[in-house]
Structures are given as C-alpha cells and as structure tokens.
Amino acid sequence: MTRCQIQDLCHLFGHHLALALKSYSELKGIVCGGDTKTRSSSTPPDLDLGSAPVLFHLREDPALLDYVVQCEGRDLDSVDFDLIRSAVSSSSSSSSARELCRFHSEESSRIFADLLSRASASRLTRYEPEGEARMAMEAVIRCLKSGP
User: Fold this and answer.
1) In the chain, where the domains are located
2) What is the DSSP letter of 74?
3) Which of 10, 26, 62, 69 is the residue whose CA sits 20 to 30 A from 111?
4) Nearest-angstrom CA–CA distance, 138 and 14
5) What are 58-80's pLDDT values in tens digits?
6) Cα–Cα distance between 17 and 114 in angstroms, integer?
7) Which span out of 41-55, 75-89, 102-116, 134-148 was modeled with the highest average pLDDT?
8) Which residues neighbour 36 within 8 Å (Cβ) at sequence distance 6 or greater?
C-alpha cells in the first residue's frame, strides 16, 4: 500500500469520525438537553435547529417547520426550544439520528481496523499493537457507537 493510499484511508477515517462526533453531539442536544427556560440570553441554546434530529423531524412535521420558519430572524430568547426538543425527542427522528451516528462510528471503526492491519504489515509507519493512542481511539469509537 502506498503512502497516498494510506493518506486516503486516513482522510476517510477522519471524515466518518467527524460525522459520528457531530451526530453524537446533535443527539446529545435532544436526549440530554437542559431546560432552556433557565438559559440566560448570553448562553446559546444546546439545540441546533440545523441538526440532523431536528431536520429529520421537520420533514414529517409541517406545523413545527412553519413555527421554525416564523422564528427566523427573531431573538433566540423568544424561540421555544423546549417545544422543539419535546417534539423531536418523541418522534422517530431520534432513531434516524442514532442510526446516522451508528453508521459513521461503525465506518470509522472499520477503517481504523483496516489502517491498523495495513500499518502492521507495512514499513511505512511505526506500529504499536497495544499503544495508548490506539486504545484511546477505540474507546472514543465505542462511546460513539453506544450513543448518548
């Protein structure tokens, strides 16, 4: 395997890992989000209206989509994030977002294992089979697979 091919695999690994981390973070905003009524105006909401769970839900809930569109340009304090979070968390969109997170974490895990097996058979990289960095990366991927 050439250095260029290894770089391509590393890029693909990073791509899937980043998307897994993003979807995990977005899910956490739905599943573990706090009460936004106690949020001060200087604190941004922990729910992103452009997140995968919200967008998955808005495809199926035209009334909530209308509400979000009406909120455009308004002060964040006037947006009822608890209403949005409640609607999203009680729908199938959370399941779709979990599947998205799981897909990207499994892909990153598969590519990481492939990289490790190729690295051990190659002289292109130094490889430590039980190194701390490898174990830490595997722990991160396991956490992403389990979801928030």
Assistant:
1) 3-32+47-146
2) S
3) 26
4) 14
5) 999 999 999 988 888 877 778 88
6) 14
7) 102-116
8) 45, 46, 47, 81, 82, 85
